[in-house]
């Protein structure tokens, strides 16, 4: 339950082995290419150093990257066209690709597939496109009014020409306004349902052909595009189109018999070709980014510490002409931030998504996922404790799990928490011990006269506890990155936490829970407030930096004074915010009580059941969503602000992309 430990790997290898090494690294899916911090190693020095060790008679390898990319692109287009004709989408098949299936073999297999089924597939794809066009045409042709004109006769006119197409209502009005200036006859011949366009026939003298075309173009005229072999009476146009579509379908069916013979074998080969080409594209993209010398290449990459040995062994299986230098993240400058890969067990794994919605933890931060998971489940259970309603959430999560592991995982865990606190309160679908005497309970209903204040106080105590942990995590994070000012003297550091506890002590003293003179916590708050205002000079005194205050002294103290006021208001807000945890527990019980009272106002058993059922549905949907949002709010605004920056960048290992 932490962030995966990373090492920075610097690999120097011979250009002769570059392709094979990069291929192995891509297929391993274990390295995060590092291009931002090439200065961590003096790569140019290393290039010259290791080149001096290489044989002097070795010729530099020159590759035309643009030509290679064009070749791969052409192969992928051919693969996708064949897949489209076969009715499949090519998929990545890493198991059967690698050094055992080379690009040369992929080219041979692609040529073989093209020779076997290339021509039928081309015809299938062309016919399918034609079917789509004819289907669109048919819908429009069906809107033409029944037999009133023979298009074939119009084509045979000597002195007149015609067009048939679509005009919008606005452009039709424009034609009407200028009809006296138009050397053509405009006739509406059809209505297109659910459209602002209608079908028109334009008849004009051939000598005005260019003039008419310019006019129609200005009106966004869309030609109907009657195929030459379908020119017939309008009443027969739809039937003729249907006949043509049927003939093409039959031709496609015959061609598909040829293409789909041994489909499983052809699919297997096509997936291998597709994977090989995708792999070559990825290797090429890496080659374009890494450092090259005359005879060698240098690659920097982040690797999970646990995978480092395995990576070296895989490279060692390919060649012995390589050097690997490894630096642990702890050996590097703190400004160099390794990528973040979260590592949580099955219990907390679904909550990673909630953390990522806010931001990804930086490598040097404590992963907040376990803490968020525990506190979020507790908050939800306290605010929404019910055995029956929690069971509904749990079962919904189980059913949702196959479609979305994250949503299903979160829902099942929140449902279990709700069930646990349902036994604490003694609540089953809103019915409590008074309605169900056999129902076990520990503290009873939150709305019980003896429980209202304890529930509200428990919410505040819970808040103080989780905020204390938040402060501690924030202090550790700040000290890890060497930020003494934030970790010791800042508002979220040691001084800020002592100030917050002084505020809590003041409240405790006021209500006389503990007999402490009020001046003691107030004095602590005043002292810590002064420390926070003087955080910059105090930090510089500790670290020995001069001057103690950078910039104008007056501006610094004015700004710090405002931050002090913000700290006071923040402490007040933080403490009070968690009252809502107890308040929503009361609200949950109170909302159902309203439906229970309404059900008791009727004598009909069926009506009682309907009212209680509707109450549970409303609580499960609306109130459940509100409670979930309130839990997120407390996490994001009250807790994360104390310890979580969320400015990490994700560990993204290079791999073949679909």
Structure description:
The protein has 658 residues and is α+β, with helices and mostly antiparallel strands. The strands form three sheets. Strands 2, 3, 8, 9 and 10 form a five-stranded antiparallel sheet that branches. It has a four-stranded antiparallel sheet with strand order 5-6-4-7. Strand 8 and strand 9 form a beta hairpin. The two termini are 30 Å apart. The model has no long low-confidence stretch (mean pLDDT 83).
Summed up:
The chain has 658 residues and is of the alpha+beta class. It has 22 helices and eleven strands.
DSSP strand count = 11
Report the end-to-end length measured between terminal Cα atoms: 30 Å
Q: Which overall shape is indicated by the principal axes computed on the Cα atoms? A: extended
The major β-sheet equals:
5 strands, antiparallel
Coarse structural class: alpha+beta
Q: Total helix count?
A: 22
> What is the overall pLDDT average?
83
